[in-house]
Amino acid sequence: MTAVDTHCPYCALQCATTLHPVERPGAVAVQPREFPTNRGGLCRKGWTAPEVLTVPDRLTKPLVRNAAGDLVETSWDEALDFVADRIRSLQTAYGDDAVAVFGGGGLTNEKAYALGKFARVTLRTSNVDYNGRFCMSSAAAATNRAFGIDRGLPFPLTDLGGAGAILLVGSNIAETMPPAVAHLDAARAAGGLLVVDPRRTATAGLVDEGAGVHLQPTPGTDLALVLSLTHVVLQEGLADTAYLQERTDDPDGLFRSTAGWWPERAERVTGVPAVTIRQAARLLAAAAPVHGGAGAFILTGRGAEQHSKGTDTVTACINLALALGLPGRLGSGYGCITGQGNGQGGREHGQKADQLPGYRSIADPAARAHVAGVWGVDPDDLPGPGRSAVELINALGTPEGPRALLVHGSNLLVSAPRLASVREHLAALDLLVVADVVPSETALIADVVFPVTQWAEEDGTMTSLEGRVLRRRAAVTPPGEVRSDLAIFAGLAERLRPATPFSTDPAEVFEELRLASAGGIADYAGISWARLDADEALFWPCPEESHPGTPRLFADRFGTPDGRARVIAVDHRPVADDLRGEAPLYLVTGRLLQHYQSGAQTRRVVELAEAEPEVFAEIHPRVAAQLGVSDGRPVRLTTARGSMVLPARVTTDVRPDTVFVPFHFGGEGSVNELTNDALDPVSKMPEFKACAVELAAASLSAKGIPA
Ligand SMILES: Nc1nc2c(c(=O)[nH]1)N[C@H]1C(S)=C(S)[C@@H](COP(=O)(O)OP(=O)(O)OC[C@H]3O[C@@H](n4cnc5c(=O)[nH]c(N)nc54)[C@H](O)[C@@H]3O)O[C@H]1N2
Ligand SMILES: Nc1nc2c(c(=O)[nH]1)N[C@H]1C(S)=C(S)[C@@H](COP(=O)(O)OP(=O)(O)OC[C@H]3O[C@@H](n4cnc5c(=O)[nH]c(N)nc54)[C@H](O)[C@@H]3O)O[C@H]1N2
Ligand code: SF4
Ligand SMILES: [Mo]
């Protein structure tokens, strides 16, 4: 092996790396590579990613559960035959929708595309969705309805570098994308870094004394806060009225929907002082182009989005950006910080319940005709829109719901909300098939487990948080009998519906993806692996080989039929499972720098597991004193869904009405035992970020806590 240029397997920043040969088979060493997003930097997860390639319990052979209930090794042919037979008999008995597929935003574009095609063409099921529903779906829904296009950042990340102010709503970017912090430097130096988070996170810590503002609202109140920021902008005459007239459909709607949110009222709801709200609005406005500022950005993360009103909160952020004339202006804008490695590409190629490749709607007859043409099938044979992730999980094993589930790239038994229900529904299935690289919590309860390739073992493409298409390159041969997810789709298609064969060659799959996406919103027709190999600077849409790609969207028009942004009136509403006498605190969940998602990968990396070995609850000293609990001692958290015991981390970084727990741990350490699966009505995003919780001191003998 020679040195191979690729990108980190984890988050959407997709830091550029070079892999170097080492002596051990299947192993590599990693070096960061100069690239606009990471500027030669890597976080701790990126540095240690090679270890996941050779973890001792790496899956290397297909496994099938035997009569005694154990997962035992088998051959690919036997495992594929078994799964195909079960699918055939379940679909014969219960119909095509009896089989469901669940995808992931970590899959390459090629895998995501093949997964959607496999569900629609081979299985003919409408039951397909993916973990992006848990991730940025509220921002996607909001940008789709306001701008007509959902590309997380409609501008290159480096554009942030010139801004005078950046408002970060519910993003802890300093821990979730550490190398990206460099792009905040100018705004920080200008005193324009504005961070909205109920915790004093590492990101809030970037706000030095007098160099910006940390707004620390009550969890679940961002919508009121942003409505009030907009109120101040409009009342103080700071809006870009010419922009509102020219580029939006309803400037008056903006005034009407924010008129009642004067800062003193918002203070009562959010806990953020009215004076701070005014200060933040003025700082942001001063950087807007209409006032001759250096540029301003509003960016949202999961803290704003993962709520039952996430779509409306993002809409309020977009409305604030429109009031200031930011979207589509060079050096300003609104963006959602997409999370997973291919969180952007994963939402474009048809893994979503309502979507076909090219970010097309599965309900649109023209879109169906185009994609069916590429697939060589009759448009009438394509299923219609299906259930969203949580609705799909809650239907599994019910009389009307699917009897079988195939999971590719998600560890549902850790990362989905209200785990008791997830466990019950997975157990009620006749067939659970999990494709993974390691025996994740979900793989361990499956009937069949397929061992698949991961980043350094495969070729493909990923689309980063900027909408930039990147090459993932194979550097090593996968161990044992590991195959790509593409081989699973091909193997099952050959057995179930051989008339439409599936390629196992990612380069061929990409060529087909180009055709299927052509003419769609996310148009990849002009992007080829050869062009990417020459220069990874192609942002979609890129309709022709001669097209330079589109780093910046919306300069002249938005993606709506008349080219104007839609102003959608939204109003504040409380958290679905709100505080009450017996549950007086908010439980919020999120991430630690050291772990990735369900932790399936990073909990297996020794250095990361040693740094953060177990779950904990951040509580304020005042709460700790009330409970008589000191740092490291066990507390019991109880919500309407469940209860868990975990050590307290006593810190003034969290509000006294808030408890924070990271979601990266499995089994008894899974905070999703407690979270609420109440859904946003538009995006169907579950309310991971806030629910009412009761706290109590726990006994020393409580499970899992050493005395
Ligand atoms: N280290 C690490 N990095 C990651 C990941 C990971 O698992 N680990 N995952 C990747 C993925 S898929 C994603 S989606 C991104 C997520 O990246 P972020 O959005 O930055 O991550 P979170 O920690 O989920 O949430 C951000 C913040 O929201 C705050 N928060 C909670 N409730 C509220 C609220 O009501 N309002 C506001 N304003 N804030 C609130 C939390 O305190 C938290 O600090 O990270 C990506 N990068
Ligand atoms: N309480 C709470 N819960 C949350 C969140 C939160 O903030 N709070 N955040 C949510 C968010 S934003 C997200 S994105 C989800 C993520 O949660 P999950 O969907 O569980 O994501 P991962 O842990 O990344 O799981 C990916 C799995 O796929 C495997 N894998 C990696 N590469 C491949 C591949 O190429 N093919 C296949 N078949 N498998 C592969 C990995 O080993 C891992 O087991 O969690 C959500 N859950
Ligand atoms: S920031 Fe994201 S892409 Fe970069 S090294 Fe860390 S996990 Fe990997
Ligand atoms: Mo995510």
UniProtKB/TrEMBL annotation:
Residues 1-57 form the 4Fe-4S Mo/W bis-MGD-type domain. One of its GO terms (biological process) is respiratory electron transport chain. Gene3D superfamilies: 2.40.40.20, 3.40.50.740, ADC-like domains, Dimethylsulfoxide Reductase, domain 2. It holds the Pfam family Molydop_binding. GO terms for molecular function: 4 iron, 4 sulfur cluster binding; metal ion binding; molybdopterin cofactor binding; NADH dehydrogenase activity. Signal peptide: none annotated. GO terms for cellular component: membrane. This is Assimilatory nitrate reductase (NADH) alpha subunit apoprotein. It comes from Kribbella voronezhensis.
